[in-house]
Design brief:
This protein has ten helices and no strands. It is an all-alpha fold. The chain has a single domain, classed as Ribonucleotide Reductase, subunit A. Helix 2 runs parallel beside helix 5. It starts with a helix and ends in a 15-residue tail after the last helix. The protein binds fe (ii) ion (FE2) (2 copies). The site of one fe (ii) ion (FE2) has 5 residues, from helix 5.
């Protein structure tokens, strides 16, 4: 009995020790700077490499997604600046600026591809308008990060589908790079949410998670409505997309749970 108890205590200590810590802003800045200089080359010399049939399936969706990736980030930087002051973490603004720069690179590469295949870029899109409207109304860092996590979870599915839907070496490489970038993006947002959710009363946290489920269901339906043609071309039926989206977001929900991290012990104040 005593042996079992000792083993349980030891494994609990081991599990606690094995938990990751949340990266600080300096670590995220270092990551984003490193990533910016370690990009996979896009084989632009190969040309568009897309058939008219392929393009017909993905062009409309690609235009809308390209617009969504293109934001000057002014409002996010403003929200991050207010948050950084509150948290006494000025480095967070630098991390957010580098994050925005990566998203702008995604938009620029997709835009360059649209130009290459002669498809005009989009200036307006209902999905993008709803997304921006939502973020403009609510200026809190938590809302930003929550909405971004949901969109990025869908982006993981979308770019994987787009990659499957085309034989274009250029577009496939762009998608590959975006997918590679989005994994740390999700972690970046989830860690921030874990920081923000930390210390929240259990009942409020359960309510927050409930609200997330409702919002996520809406975002998933909206993404399917706006992009089903490209998603289908990439092998998704609605059922498969729905299940994959919830599985992807499930990982994010686990990663934004404060209990998933080891936190520094509180420092004693005099
Ligand atoms: Fe992106
Ligand atoms: Fe992203």
């Amino acid at each position: 009995m005593l042996e079992a108890l000792t083993l349980t205590t030891e494994s609990a200590a081991l599990t606690k020790h094995a938990l990751p810590t949340v990266w600080n802003s300096a670590e995220w800045v270092a990551y984003f700077r490193h990533n910016a200089t370690n990009l996979m080359p896009v084989p632009w010399g190969c040309g568009a490499g897309v058939s008219p049939e392929e393009l017909a399936e993905i062009a409309g969706s690609l235009r809308a997604w390209q617009l969504g990736e293109t934001s000057d980030g002014t409002r996010l930087t403003r929200a991050a600046s207010r948050y950084a002051v509150r948290m006494n973490d000025p480095g967070f603004v630098d991390a957010i600026r580098l994050f925005i720069a990566e998203e702008q690179r995604h938009g620029a590469e997709l835009g360059k591809y649209l130009d290459l295949v002669g498809v005009p870029r989009k200036g307006r899109d209902w999905g993008d308008a709803v997304f921006r409207c939502f973020r403009h109304v609510l200026h809190q860092m938590e809302v930003w990060a929550t909405v971004v996590v949901m969109v990025e979870s869908h982006a993981m599915l979308y770019y994987a589908a787009l990659r499957r839907a085309t034989g274009s070496a250029v577009l496939r490489r762009i998608c590959h790079q975006i997918l590679r970038d989005e994994v740390p993006h999700l972690r970046f947002q989830c860690e921030r949410l874990a920081v923000l959710h930390r210390g929240r009363a259990r009942v409020l946290w359960v309510l927050t998670m409930g609200a997330h489920r409702v919002l996520f269901a809406g975002v998933t339906l909206a993404v399917w409505a706006g992009h089903r043609r490209a998603l289908r071309a990439g092998g998704f039926t609605f059922g498969r997309f729905w299940r994959s989206a919830w599985a992807q977001m499930g990982k994010a929900w686990r990663a934004m749970d404060p209990r998933a991290y080891r936190w520094p012990a509180p420092t004693a104040t005099s």
